[in-house]
Structure formats: structure tokens, C-alpha cells
Design a protein that fits this description.
Layout (H helix, E strand, L loop, with lengths): L7 E6 L5 H12 L2 E4 H14 L7 H9 L3 E6 L2 E7 L2 E2 L7 H10 L3 H12 L7 E5 L2 H5 L5 E6 L2 H14 L6 H17 L12 E4 L5 H14 L1 H5 L2 H11 L6
Parallel strand pairs: 1-6, 1-7, 2-6, 7-8
Antiparallel strand pairs: 3-4, 4-5
Helix pairs in contact: 1-9, 2-4, 3-5, 7-8
The protein binds cytidine-5'-monophosphate (C5P).
Amino acid sequence: MIRHKEPVITIDGASGTGKGTVSQMLATRLGWKFLDSGALYRVLALAAQKHSVAFNNEKALEVLAEHLDVQFIARENKLPLIILEGEDVTETIRTESIGNAASIIAALPAVRASLLSRQRSFRETPGLVADGRDMGTVVFPDAELKIFLTASPEERALRRYNQLKERGISVSLGDLIKELRERDRRDQERSVAPLKPAEDAVMIDTDRLTIEEVVDRILSELEGNAVKKAFPATASQTMFDCAGVGVAE
Ligand code: C5P
């Protein structure tokens, strides 16, 4: 029997392009599952820190990734609750230092390979919105719709600055821009799964768009694009109806 594959929308791009919020909102609007793949790399970095595994010890990190005891618990209109070894780490993994550590371990091929099947296991009925760097190029190359979000480094740093300020964390904007550029360089230059758009990705520059405008743009791409091709017209209509999708006019 041929296994029917659930539809996937991949949202890739650098940090600060609004990927996380856009993906989560999109998943809610569609009633689909949500994968925050960056959180997996962040959880692994935190686990490494906790178990005193060096960020360059590829073999030990590979083993740690394979046995990572992590759960993502979906919540309404919020990023999922993340539990590592029974402890709530939802907030702990969002610091700049864990983000940087995540980007260092994410450059190791064995680490990426050992997280592949875990990421693919998020593909469930009725569909998945997958947020990351290599969702469209490596993890879900057969996705129905691939989006690549861009924004200028200054705009991305400003968004991050405001997010941190909201949480009462004070940082220098200049330092944030510097760190973003460094993280971009590492993500783009690594030998495996570098940050780059898939050949068939739709590029969206988010500099002058609100989150809602980006989500609406993606929903209209979806309406006119891949899911329609993958399913006959009537079936795709039924699927939208079931998911309670308000596809943008
Ligand atoms: O998206 P987020 O900032 O949470 O990701 C943290 C780091 O994890 C990124 O800087 C990137 O290096 C890495 N990452 C990755 N591939 C993904 C998601 C994140 O390499 N699919």
C-alpha cells in the first residue's frame, strides 16, 4: 500500500526574520502541527552544557542527540512547552548564549544526521509547518510549499532587541547586530545543510511587512500552489474545510 504523505510547508530563513512567529501563526490558522527545529538544536546545546559535553565533541553530541529526552507540548497561540529530562526549559533555551551554542553544534554533520528522523517524525495529519534553516533543502525536500524569509540584519537585530526588552533582558543593539552577522556566517558557510533557499522556494522579504501580512501571503501561495497540485481540486477543498482554514483572499 502506498503511504499517503501529509502536506508540509517549510519556512526557512535566518534568525530574526520572524520565522518562528509566522510559522506558529500559520500552523494555528491551518490547524496543522508545528516543528520548531531550532529549538531542537537549542535543547541539544543545553543538554550538552548540563552533561558537560564539549561543543566540539561530535561523537558525544551525536550520542546525546540520539538519546535526547525531549518533549514538545503544543499550546494554543503560544510556542510549545519544551521539556528536557522532565524539566521545563521553554525559556532557558531562548538566551543568546544557548542560541550561539546551538549554531556551533549545528555545524557538526553527525549532530545534524542524528536529528533528522526526529524532525521528520513531526510530519503528522493533517499537515506540518516546519520552521528552520534546512527544512526545504534537506529535511522535507518534498514539501508542498517552501518559503524562504529574508530581512535586513538591522531590522532583524531590532526585532530581537524588542523581544528581549519585552522579557526584561537588556542588551546592546550593536552587539546583537554583530552576533547576528556571526551566526549568519556560521549558518551559511557550514559544509552540511548551509542556510540557503531551496531552488523551488518562494522568497519573501519581511522588512516592510507585518507578521499577519507574511502569513496571509503564505496562505495565498498555498491556495494557488502545491497543495492544490498534490490533491485533486475537490479533495483540496475538503482538506481546507476540515482544517478550518481561512485562506486569505
Ligand atoms: O532558529 P533558532 O535561532 O532557534 O536556531 C538556533 C540555531 O540552530 C541557528 O542559529 C542554527 O545554527 C541552528 N539551526 C540549524 N538548522 C535548523 C534550525 C536551527 O542549523 N533547521
